């Protein structure tokens, strides 16, 4: 009961914060009466938004809602970089200018849906009479929208929506072309703060002995699978530079260039290099032959590699103890 009330008050606080945030923009103007209803999903730095795939999940979900309800759809992705630097509009003109982000108390509604798995977004938006709906969301709602569909069908919808919305920018394509071209098997790990090599959205850090033990277990798991693929190149993708360096120094497996960092941690400000690493890691898995997520002990059950595999129609498996 206490946890339920705590969650309710956090939600209420975030809603009030966003209302004040938009009120401070002083764009309280009426939309034209002929305007079609519109959904704007926002990643503008007003609140923590999560990682790249968390953001993509929210985008894909509400693009599907917009299609089903025949609403216009826009993406306000400006923090910590502009999305169009990496992903440009493809079949949908989703860009929106700052001056068009108009908020009116009588015609605009804000929904804070971060980590909210309890709502049905179709019902929520359909029952909303406001013309402009501003959404903050990091949830994949396709299963809720289509509760009668198999996972393979949901994956196809996710992939279709992504490709309707996005095409890689020339800048990103040039960087992808610098990656190894021969398809291989990718092992992905997500440690968050466990290795102690960077701060993340969680703060658990393993002691030195536990770290060493985990490193050995992970290498052993990779070796177990690589034995059955002797002619395939083996790549390791991770959020931990400590782990990547360990792989380079102690194994024959391959790593990609760059230093990984979380998209929601803005200590690198306007430097695009860490963000570029996120996108190139993602697209390398999209174009791979098979992807494994290693999930041992307290390691994070990341969706990063799973959605890359969905986009690329790549075989995906989770390796546990």
């Amino acid at each position: 009961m206490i946890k339920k009330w705590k969650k309710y008050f956090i939600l209420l606080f975030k809603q009030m914060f966003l209302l004040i945030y938009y009120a401070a923009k002083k764009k309280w103007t009426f939309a034209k009466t002929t305007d079609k209803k519109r959904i704007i999903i926002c990643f503008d730095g007003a609140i923590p938004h999560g990682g790249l795939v968390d953001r993509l999940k929210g985008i894909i979900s509400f693009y599907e809602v917009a299609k089903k309800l025949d609403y216009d759809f826009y993406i306000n992705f400006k923090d910590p970089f502009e999305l169009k630097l990496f992903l440009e509009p493809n079949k949908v003109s989703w860009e929106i200018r700052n001056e068009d982000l108009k908020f009116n108390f009588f015609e605009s509604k804000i929904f804070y849906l971060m980590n909210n798995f309890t709502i049905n977004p179709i019902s929520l938006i359909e029952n909303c009479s406001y013309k402009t709906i501003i959404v903050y969301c990091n949830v994949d709602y396709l299963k809720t929208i289509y509760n009668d569909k198999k996972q393979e069908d949901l994956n196809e919808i996710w992939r279709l929506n992504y490709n309707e919305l996005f095409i890689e920018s020339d800048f990103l394509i040039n960087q992808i072309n610098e990656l190894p071209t021969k398809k291989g098997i990718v092992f992905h790990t997500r440690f968050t703060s466990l290795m102690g090599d960077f701060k993340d959205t969680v703060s658990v850090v393993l002691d030195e002995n536990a770290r060493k033990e985990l490193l050995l277990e992970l290498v052993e798991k990779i070796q177990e699978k690589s034995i059955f693929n002797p002619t395939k190149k083996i790549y390791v993708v991770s959020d931990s530079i400590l782990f990547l360096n360990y792989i380079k120094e102690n194994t024959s497996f391959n790593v990609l260039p760059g230093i990984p960092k979380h998209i929601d941690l803005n200590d690198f400000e306007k430097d695009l290099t860490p963000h570029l690493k996120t996108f190139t890691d993602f697209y390398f898995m999209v174009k791979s032959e098979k992807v494994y997520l290693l999930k041992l002990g307290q390691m994070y059950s990341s969706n990063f590699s799973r959605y890359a595999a969905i986009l690329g129609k790549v075989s995906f498996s989770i390796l546990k103890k």
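The first helix runs from residue 2 to 23. The radius of gyration is 21 Å.
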